[in-house]
User: Fold UspA domain-containing protein from Populus deltoides.
Amino acid sequence: MEGVSVDDKHKIVVAVDESEESMHALSWCLSNLISHNSTTTLVLLYVKPRPIIYSSFDIAEHIFSADVIVAMEKYGTDLVNSVMKRAEAVFRNFNRNVNVEKVIGSGEAQDVICDTVEKLRPDTLVMGSHGYGFLKRAILGSVSEHCAKRVKCPVVIVKHPHDKTTLPSNSSLKHDDGF
Amino acid sequence: MEGVSVDDKHKIVVAVDESEESMHALSWCLSNLISHNSTTTLVLLYVKPRPIIYSSFDIAEHIFSADVIVAMEKYGTDLVNSVMKRAEAVFRNFNRNVNVEKVIGSGEAQDVICDTVEKLRPDTLVMGSHGYGFLKRAILGSVSEHCAKRVKCPVVIVKHPHDKTTLPSNSSLKHDDGF
Assistant:
């Protein structure tokens, strides 16, 4: 990862993808973590899944021709550009003086995000919850859970505001005024 | 939970306990989420574990006398006061104009925190990672993981800066300058 400086300035990594949730996480970051007179460097991290390529010698159900592989790679590049353009549009809605850097990773999202955080040492990581629905989340855990366990810096997990999670009410609370 | 208002003001819940990590989470919140001219209401939430009380009629290994129970309850109250005084000391290090409210809950920490968030509807929940060490965390999950899954608002998970988690480096990254 050449060209990435590790310095003392305030740095935030925001993991973005094609979901509305990740754009909401970016908006939350711009609203809550970056002030108008900030000198923050904001790193937009997008993770492309590794392409699954089968050669004609593999005993595989799906064998793709070179043309299909090229088309898939182009689709991946188009997706990166699309996500970054959406992120740019989110930025335009906020009047923030930040240095924006883009990092494109490839591989398992959770590994790439943790790896980037280890290398860039940001002050904060911001990401969507990236859940997979109740059953898979319960068994496997989500990308955000994995990252929250592994990275050292504070992690902000932002859910899409239309998330309909319900909560039980089985505890007792006592309220008190301030100090 | 009488006396707790649900209004449109910016509200942050910080889960505090006797750990250094939770005080670090409070510091992070004061440094990063609350500006000098903020009108934020900051709710400090402390969760007391439910006392385990055995009567002399139970077939239990441990039977406590009334004196011991009173002493345990006093210890619990002392702990609450101690944590809130530490939080107050953290506040004094920051020049922030915030309304501070205290909520004392009782029960399983994860349930009480989720329940409080559901009732108060804060803009953000801030907490320490509250891990239990590798094995238990891997099997059961931590309080913060549980809360991050269940609450609807953005959740900030802050680890103690001396956490020595190590990360693998098994992904590829490409760095790019800003827009």
Observations:
- The longest strand of chain A covers residues 41-48.
- Chain A touches chain B through 68 residues (CB under 8 Å).
